[in-house]
Amino acid sequence: MRILHVITGLDLGGAETVLYRLVTAQASEAEHVVVSLTGEGAYGARLRQQGIAVHALQFPRGWLTLRGLHRLWRLILALRPDAIQTWLYHADLIGGLAGRLAGVRAVCWGIRNSNLSRETSSRHTRLTAHICAWMSAWLPAAIVSCSDRAALVHQHLGYRKQKFTVIHNGYDLSRFSPQPRVRETLRAEWGVSPGMQLLGTAARWDPQKDHANLLSALALLARAGKDFRCVLAGAGMDGANEDLVRLVSENGLEDKVMLLGLRDDIPAIMNALDLHVLSSSYGEAFPNVVAEAMACGTPCVVTDVGDAAAIVGGTGWVAPPDDAASLARIVGKALEVLQTPRREMLSQACRQRVAERFGIERMVAAYKAVWSGCGG
Predict the structure, then answer these.
(1) 130 falls in which pLDDT band (50, 70, 90)?
(2) N or C: fewer beta carbons within 10 Å in the chain?
(3) Alpha-carbon span 298 to 316, nearest angstrom
């Protein structure tokens, strides 16, 4: 099969990461072509290095233009894909329309958001989602959601229920795996002693990730006498971010928090941690970092957003979002448990859960089944 993927952009993000893993997986036997409605972002060059054709249409971000739609239509006519997989609302709408106008009936939408409130989503995004809900009766042949909660949210919005398939994100367990030597090397580089408990998170600077809540919880732990260190990695998580630096200072955490900035060694970071913390307050559907940490044998504390609680199951801990006191209490409890013999058992259970439920091969096979089933 030739599969054409249409995505809003190729910057670093959850949808973009899953797209990259899907089209470059060894288990994938299809020919993949990727179209970005905007620019090439961080993933354009990486995809080309893996032999994937990439087309960047340079749409004005967030806007549908007749010229852009015409360019996409002509590209689809030239490529003649067996199926079109779209990613995110604007690509669902634009890619779906262009595909159907080009005569491709096997259009599969991608849903990757679990929150569409006025407080957390722009008016333009909410309008696009509502238009897609109305069009879902006839435009897509199938709708793929990465999480159960996201599927329910969109079905309540009016998306056609019978077209949904939930395909959880998949992970390469050869890349995300326990690596004791890497753990030791990175901790030594950061000046973290073997006995010091190290927690952290990998997430870009964004209100959705709620770093303010995390730092407030860490301040409570520090005042309670807990001895720990914390690393924060991701776009905007560095000393140039004045708002972040101010939050660290206001919470008195200068000697406990290290700002790593954007990193490309996430498996190594997950190995270095004793505990990964997801502090998001909204918007998550299937947060990649949780399963990535677990695949490396690192237990997680997560806020109850999207499918985060379902990912950890009985291998981790769940806290309510927007509640620093509860997050501090649960992180403190987790750190205590990880100082007992249960640590090794939890570590093995984390990796086993990801291997059984969220392997990359399972995700690839599920997508291929959807594309074949809708005529691809």
Answers:
(1) very high
(2) N
(3) 9
pLDDT confidence of residue 266: 95
302 and 278 Cβ atoms separated by less than 8 Å: yes
Compute CA distances 344 → 27, 285, 355, whole Å: 31, 29, 17
Comparing C-alpha atoms, which of 337, 351, 348 is closest to residue 267?
351
Q: How many CB atoms lie within 10 A of CB 38?
A: 20
Q: How many CA atoms lie within 13 A of 282 on its CB side?
A: 12
Q: Report the C-alpha gap between 244 and 356 in whole angstroms.
A: 37
Structural domains present in the chain: 2-170+359-373 (3.40.50.2000), 180-357 (3.40.50.2000)
Under 8 Å CB-to-CB from 201, ≥6 apart: which residues?
209, 214, 232, 233, 234, 276, 277, 278, 279, 289
Indicate if the pLDDT at residue 120 is higher than 70.
Answer: no
* Average pLDDT value for residue range 274-303: 96
Question: Which residues are CB-neighbours of 376 under 8 A, at least 6 positions away?
Answer: 1, 3, 81, 82, 83, 106
| Average pLDDT of the chain to the nearest whole number | 94
Q: Does pTM top 0.85 for this prediction? A: yes
Q: Are 57 and 36 in contact (CB under 8 A)?
A: yes
Q: Kindly report the length of the chain.
A: 376
Sheet of 83-87: strand order equals: 53-56, 31-36, 2-7, 83-87, 107-111, 142-145, 164-166
